[in-house]
Specification:
alpha/beta; TIM Barrel; eight-stranded mixed β-sheet; eight-stranded parallel β-sheet; binds N-(iminomethyl)-L-glutamic acid; binds fe (iii) ion
């Protein structure tokens, strides 16, 4: 259906076709049309411009947006949305002084979630994930990447990926799926980690590829999880099945994962709370996009990714939620935007670019999402009447969204 939005206070993130990724100082520029109109039809953006250029014969329902901003919906390029139950017990343990690492070392953490997921039915998992996704869409998320990685057996990893596939069919938002079998080593393989890696490469991967269940491959490259060598082998195996890498690196330690990612042409490297000079150097010479996850640093009380330094070195940056039960039990991208401004010290314009245009690139959907561009999906956030766009991240915790459109349909 055709809809004409008029008197938009400011239409944000207006980009020409083909504009894909923003680096360094370009991230502070957020092109906008003040006092604008926008026409959407058949689920896509048809036209926009200044109000005075709107021809009187523009047909379709007219929605007046005086005082309101319009921007493309959030792209959340890193989540673990499919999981069974929660881990608020570990949250209390951490309040009492036990560290995230200690919890994991005692069989909690990812292995705790894996135990719950293995005993949950596919239907239960689907229902839980669907509930979370419904909430996120209302909060303005129009595209989302979802990882496996709480299965850690052939059967349970495939169960998770099938849930993601079902969500993709049932929900209008764009969904990308990532195989993260290398999220943790199950207890029974702790004495011989290579046996698990072989299972992952020779049994999980071929089945997943055959069923077309994943778009990307991920590894948690970290001390106590998977080494840079393990990561290399797994990324190579992924590449033989046509899966490009988007990997977890440098959350607690810098152990060479950035270099492995860059060598393998990874699309993104995510987390990056701990960065050595060599890591900055590798990224500067690469096509790999850094993704910061400030919600994880906030929830765990760990350092934040040095995003200011990345931008000043001319790098591109995306931000994502990392929604998961252990290190960031929220997928609210509005909150992530605030955390990016407050804790990463980036400007509202930089944060919006990081959560839309660069985030779309981070999940390979830059042709259809991430900006107000003719032909792209009409997936939009319409704000309440606000003074400036900076008010959005400034008012952290407030709900300033008036309406959400996904592929041209009003869903809120
Ligand atoms: O991105 N760091 C690895 N994986 C998740 C957390 C997983 C969990 O604690 O369940 C993350 O933070
Ligand atoms: Fe993660």
């Amino acid at each position: 259906m055709r809809t004409v939005f008029t008197n938009i206070k400011s239409l944000l993130q207006v980009r020409p076709k083909g504009q894909t990724i923003l680096k360094g100082k370009d991230m502070a520029v957020l092109p906008a049309i003040d006092h604008a109109y926008l026409i959407i039809d058949d689920g896509v953006i048809k036209a926009y411009g200044k109000m005075e250029e709107l021809t009187p014969e523009a047909k379709g329902p007219i929605i007046d947006l005086s005082g309101k901003y319009v921007l493309p919906s959030w792209c959340d390029s890193h989540t673990h949305l499919v999981y069974a139950g929660n881990r608020e017990g570990e949250f209390i343990d951490r309040i009492n002084g036990v560290s995230y690492e200690d919890i994991a070392a005692k069989g909690g953490g990812i292995l705790n979630s894996a135990k719950r997921l293995q005993s949950a039915s596919e239907e239960e998992l689907y229902q839980q994930a669907a509930g979370r996704l419904t909430e996120l869409i209302r909060q303005g998320t129009g595209a989302i990447e979802i990882k496996s990685g709480y299965g850690l057996s052939v059967e349970a990893e495939i169960k998770m990926l099938r849930v993601i596939k079902r969500l993709r069919t049932d929900y209008p938002v764009k969904i990308k799926s990532t195989f993260l079998g290398a999220h943790a080593v199950p207890q029974k393989y702790k004495q011989d980690q290579q046996v698990y890696i072989d299972l992952l490469m020779h049994e999980m991967l071929p089945q997943i590829a055959e069923e077309g269940l994943a778009d990307y491959i991920d590894v948690f490259c970290e001390k106590g999880y998977f080494s840079a060598e393990d990561t290399k082998a797994i990324l190579q195996a992924g590449a033989t099945h046509g899966l490009r890498a988007k990997i977890h690196v440098n959350q607690f330690n810098s152990i060479g994962g950035v270099q492995v990612a860059v060598e393998h042409g990874a699309l993104t490297v995510d987390h990056l709370e701990v960065m050595k000079d060599a890591d900055f150097d590798s990224l500067q010479e690469s096509e790999t996009l850094p993704v910061a996850l400030p919600g994880c640093s906030f929830f765990l009380g760990i350092p934040y990714s040095p995003v200011r330094a990345m931008i000043s070195k001319g790098l591109p940056v995306a931000i994502a939620s990392d929604y998961n039960p252990g290190s960031c039990p929220s997928g609210n991208m509005n909150l992530i935007l605030s955390l990016a401004c407050i804790k990463l010290r980036i400007l509202p314009e930089e944060a919006i670019n990081a959560a839309t245009l660069n985030a779309a690139y981070a999940m390979g959907i830059e042709d259809t999402h991430g900006s107000i561009t003719v032909g792209k999906s009409a997936s939009l956030i319409i704000t309440k009447e606000i003074s400036t766009i900076g008010f959005l991240p400034y008012s952290y915790g407030s709900d300033l969204i008036d309406a959400v459109y996904i592929n041209g349909d009003k869903i809120r």
